[in-house]
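Justification of resources, computational component.

The compute hours requested in this renewal are based largely on the per-chain cost of generating structure records like the one below. Each record pairs the submitted sequence with a full structure-token output. That output is archived, and it is also reused by downstream analysis tasks.
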Amino acid sequence: MTREPRDAPQFYLTAPSPCPYLPDRQERKVFTHLIGARAVGLNDQLTLSGFRRSQTIAYRPACERCRACVSIRVRVPEFHPSRNFRRVMDQNADLLGVVGRTEPTAEQYSLFRSYLDARHGEGGMADMTILDYSMMIEDSHVESRLVEYRAPDPQAPGETQLLGACLTDLLADGLSMVYSFYAPDQQRRSLGTYMILDHIERARRLGLPHVYLGYWVEGSRKMAYKARFLPQERLGMNGWEKVG
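The structure output for this chain reads:
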């Protein structure tokens, strides 16, 4: 009789709930726990299989009649920024990206709250308190960092202001952008795009071949931007396939 290892991950299935990306659809997720000594290696393996991390949970869509959510990752060695991307980089040349430990601050939460209120006021994260935010940042058994993007403060010479932040996992084959947020009143900067471009360059310097962007959903305006970062790979029935 075959026996599973005592520490083999156990997988669970959520009940159906409204899809946050496509109207009139239901979503289900399969998930497992990322805890203990096995968490780092398991996170690497599951990410390769299309899972995403949220605190100590790894999950992926398991919808019965829909396969719209597609895991994507940028092919770092082959990526060359377009003219538009270079313009975004120039617009943010004054930003300083600071990599730090996953330690939440009141300044981060204030920016996070402004971002949610402006961009996702009716989403599932809309009611997150500072304690919820702290758990999102701190509760991890894998190798994670928080990258802050700071600019000179025009109101306080010599000081900086926080304009964006990204919770990032360091994987064996790349960087995974778990969650990012930014100042909603800085539209000219295209901060969301800039943070992806910055992570691509960080992965390049680290010799890592991929930047994982989570799920792309065809037909969802919220996710359309992810398709612009080419070449990329999308996870399908035949494994990771190159696009662009």
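Residues 199 and 211 are 7 Å apart (CA to CA). The chain has two domains: 12-69, 72-243.
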